[in-house]
Specification:
The structure is a single chain. This protein is α/β, with parallel strands linked by helices and about 230 residues long. Helix content is about 30%, strand content about 25%. Strand 7 (about 160-165), helix 6 and strand 8 form a beta-alpha-beta unit. Helix 4 (about 115-125) packs across helix 5 and helix 5 packs parallel to helix 6.
Length: about 230
């Protein structure tokens, strides 16, 4: 195993540079690692996740994710389709197509037939205990069921990295526990690199490592040691 993510002096600003969402971030993440990112609202944690997922673009610094230099590589659709799985707090399922069709969407970047896509989607649904809901519309599912569908969809392209932004933030405690068990099992059994933004320290502690962000800077390591603006974590 080696580094799957490498950031050096990463900067991202808004409002003509007046707001520094990321202010010189240095960070390394190992392949197969489970990292939690914590911090108060506005600290930069979600911006960091979005930049890692090529949903937003940094202004300066270096960022390499799964072999892609995101500062120079322009084919980011291909990168996202091949390397990443996304899980959002509000699941982001398309409401007017079925559950199984939602899961098939990331597979369109792969060379699969319609039959192969359907079989793979049903297998993924079965893995999260929802194969019997394949033909349902997302609006007919509970919040926890929708998030389990979102996990299945995140795995549809066999990603190297899963980025999860508050995946249990809108769920009750019992459902949250179920989702977290599925994510940790996925990380453990499939060696997927899992990066999760959360505001809940009980959730964060499940990770191999906790990164605390404040004012666009990494300020604390897992052991609580205060760090300088730039940090190398191995």
């Amino acid at each position: 195993m080696g580094k799957i993510i490498e950031l050096k002096n990463l900067v991202k600003t808004y409002e003509n540079g007046n707001i520094k969402a990321l202010n010189g971030i240095d960070l390394s993440i190992e392949e197969g690692e489970f990292v939690s990112i914590i911090g108060p609202s506005g600290s930069g944690k979600s911006t960091l996740l979005n930049v890692l997922g090529a949903l937003d673009v940094a202004e300066s610094g270096e960022i390499t994710v799964a072999g892609y230099d995101l500062m120079v590589n322009k084919n980011l659709h291909k990168f996202r389709g091949e390397k990443l799985g996304f899980i959002f707090q509000l699941h982001n399922l398309i409401p007017n197509i079925s559950v199984v069709e939602n899961i098939e969407i990331p597979m369109f970047t792969q060379n699969l037939s319609s039959k192969e896509m359907r079989e793979k989607a049903l297998t993924l649904l079965d893995n999260v205990g929802l194969k019997d809901k394949a033909k349902y519309m997302p609006t007919k599912l509970s919040g926890g069921e929708r998030q389990r569908v979102a996990i299945a969809r995140a795995l549809a392209n066999d990603p190297s990295i899963i980025l999860a932004d508050e995946p249990t933030g809108s769920l009750d405690s019992k459902t949250s526990q179920m989702i977290l068990e599925q994510l940790t099992k996925l990380h453990r059994e499939e060696n997927v690199t899992l990066i999760m933004v959360t505001h809940d320290m009980n959730v964060a502690k499940l990770a191999d490592r906790i990164i605390e962000v404040l004012d666009g800077k990494i300020i604390k390591a897992e052991d609580g040691t205060l760090l300088e603006n730039k940090i190398e974590i191995n």
